[in-house]
Amino acid sequence: MTLGRLVDGLALRGHRLTIIRPRQRHESPRFSITQRVACRQVRLPGIPIPGYPQLRLGLPAGRRLRQLWSLSRPDLVHVATEGPLGASAITTAHEFGIPVTSSFHTNFDQYTRDYRIGWLKPVVAAWLRHLHNRTRRTFVPTPTLLTRLSTEGYTNLRLLSRGVDTALFNPAQRDASLRASWGVAPDDPVIVHVGRIAPEKNYPLLFRAFDAVKAVEPRARLVLVGDGPRLSVYQRQRPDVIFTGFYTGLNLARHYASGDLYLHASSTETFGNVITEALASGLAVSAFDYAAAHEFIRHNENGLVAPAGDESIFLANAARLMTDRTLRLRLRTAAPAAVHNRSWDAVIDGFAADLAEAMREPLAPPSATKN
């Protein structure tokens, strides 16, 4: 979603963009170039991500990139994902003398625990640092993450926060007919959660919080919006939960606004756009004091936060939101104001200016690109 916003915004400002990405499983197996509204797309071979076959990982593509950039040399290369394809793009950009920047979107090193390869965490962490330090800028979404990466040896860090479309995500999207389709009465409290249904999202804790909520309010319902590798497992395990599938745009906005509470159990994301979307939609949000929640939620003012990793307080906050109706309504009223001035236009303007600055810098000597 973030990449889509950046691409659309840069295109509207007159920039010409090409996205080079791995071909997904539903797409034609042959090499192809397509022209979309906002940009040209080049689809290259990929392989299923281990543990997440719905998505594919880009493979090294130095030869193809050399062919493409010999015919049409870009002014700048930006690496949005730190995989083999992104790494080969950095190497090829250096060969051509093209400025290259990157984004730190995902704590891949922390995900190793969720996918039972925790012993690889130091290797993945070192790989990420090496890759990003070969670029002129590494963009990160929060000041907290910028500080953490700086202490871990990352260089040339810049802030690239996230916006929220308040014209789309707002309380006016609440839909009584949608709530009725969930089988809930007008006054029944509904917990909404939106996200990739995958191990790193900490759904076991979310389900424990729902159980704690049901213990004090049996009418409560949990609605999960999304898809992912654990969907079928959780559907079997939790027949009391409503699984809607994946939605975007107006349908997604309706699902947010038709809930009452938003519980966010994950503590591994670099930002978490769902937090700002839930706040904009007028939900009482409870999360860990981390990433977007740390940046936008003021405890007891526009939401509730628990210290990062403190599951007992997280569970207590969920039960508190359910039992204290006055608090819940107060937080819902205050939530949209927390993000009302966080427009995508301002974020994209800042990103474009940072890219232009990176392009103006002189090329580093060859030895510096290998650090």
What would you say this structure looks like, in words?
- With 371 residues, this protein is of the alpha/beta class.
- It folds into two domains: 189 residues, 3-Layer(aba) Sandwich (Rossmann fold); 169 residues, 3-Layer(aba) Sandwich (Rossmann fold).
- 41% of the residues lie in helices and 17% in strands.
- It has a six-stranded parallel beta sheet with strand order 12-11-10-13-14-15, sandwiched between helices. It has a four-stranded parallel beta sheet with strand order 6-7-8-9, with helices on both faces.
- α1 crosses α15 and α2 crosses α3.
- The longest helix is centred in the last third of the chain and has 17 residues.
- The C terminus is likely disordered.
List the helices and strands and how they pair.
Elements lengths: L1 H11 L5 E5 L9 E4 L4 E5 L1 E4 L2 E7 L3 H10 L5 E3 L4 H13 L3 E4 L4 H7 L6 H12 L5 E3 L2 H9 L5 E3 L16 H6 L8 E5 L8 H14 L4 E5 L5 H7 L4 E4 L3 H9 L3 E4 L8 H8 L3 E5 L2 H6 L7 E3 L4 H13 L1 H10 L9 H17 L11
Parallel strand pairs: 1-3, 6-7, 7-8, 8-9, 10-11, 10-13, 11-12, 13-14, 14-15
Antiparallel strand pairs: 2-3, 4-5
Helix pairs in contact: 1-15, 2-3, 4-5, 8-13
Spatial strand order of the main sheet = 12-11-10-13-14-15
Q: List unreliable stretches of 5+ residues.
A: 366-371
H/E topology pattern: HEEEEEHEHEHHEHEHEHEHEHEHEHEHHH
The CATH homologous superfamily of the largest domain corresponds to Glycogen Phosphorylase B
Percentage of β-strand residues: 15-25%
Distance between the termini: 31 Å
Structural class: alpha/beta
What is the number of strand segments?
15
CATH fold-level assignment of the largest domain: Rossmann fold
Structural domain count: 2
Query: Which CATH first-tier class of the largest domain would you pick?
Result: Alpha Beta
The rounded Rg comes to: 22 Å
The geometry reads as: elongated
Task: Report the total helices.
Answer: 15
The chain-level mean pLDDT equals 90
Helix content: 40-55%
CATH architecture of the largest domain: 3-Layer(aba) Sandwich
Largest sheet entry: 6 strands, parallel
